[in-house]
What we know:
This protein is mostly helical. The protein has a single domain (9-344), classed as Amino acid/polyamine transporter I (Up-down Bundle), CATH 1.20.1740.10. The chain is 75% helix and 1% strand. The chain has a two-stranded antiparallel ribbon with strand order 1-2. The radius of gyration is 20 Å and the shape is globular. The two termini are 31 Å apart.
Amino acid sequence: MIEKVKISPHQFKLIVILVYIGSSILVIPGILASEVKQDAWISALLGILFGLLLVWLYNSLGDKFGNMTLVEYSEKILGKWIGKLISLFFVMFLFINCSTLIYIFGNFITTEILTETPIQFTNIIFIAVIIMGTRYGLETFAKASEILYPLVLVLLIMLLIFLCKDIDLKNIQPVFEYEIKHIVKGSLLYVSYSSLTLVALMMIFPAYVNNKKEAKKSFLIGTLTGGIIIFFLTFFVISVLDPNIAALNEYSTFTLAKKINVGKFLERLEAIVTLLWFITIFYKTIIYFYGIVFGLAQILKLKDYKPLTLPSGILVVIFSLIIYPNSSYANKWNSTTWVSFALTSGFFIPLLLLLVGKIRKIKNKY
């Protein structure tokens, strides 16, 4: 083990929630609205169920290989060379996702808040914070989650309370207007941005959680909690904004916050969503980045992952500037390639490892 620290199941649960919410808090409601309009909330509910099934798969892997990360038991199950290839593919998945999150962060800042700031500067500043947090180690940013999560919860409650009076149930009618295949497609989009990204946590679960049994419960509870939060945000976006307006807005939750108007003196509280998103996308990005450098260190048999943080951070920033040439390309990638890519890394690879691990265990017995 490169890392010698252990985090508590409670800290792990908070990390699961924050990673689950991640970029989803801004983008999922709009993506679902563009796919199934007023039935977006149904896709979100179905997506929560799929997410819990995924966590069951991850927990099953954790049961068999409790003291190893996904990179370590890939080699143990599939052999040295195939295992390393699978591990490299997994690290590439984390790298692409980390670059995408840096891009989303920079794009949001430069289009919604600091419109005259070059995206390069926002990306560099953000990755500098990520590198610093990663170098401090897992235990440090796990403890920080205990401070930041209550703030996230308070801000979420404030946001939803202020918007309750603006709910119009006509906006979610008629229910089930879209065929089930469209609703399922919407739920797969939901899962690809939320639950499937939790596979990055297999670089710390359960090897670096000090109680495996409680860690499994924390994984399930954290996923369910994150799912409920995204469900409520999706419901509010659809019922307050109108599904057609939500579908046209790239950051529909941010647009939703602009609707807040309490007594004509409390208005346009976009800062609530902005702060919420800063915290959650930080945790999602740092888990990806931690997985990249930690995974590479294990593949290369290094004693420490910290020397890899700076060069990896530079590569992530460079890739974040070229990953999406334009918005049209980004939309096409998200609608055609992204779900398959996420399913491969977040579902098929863990399933393959679990099945081959069981088969090899049977062969060893007989």
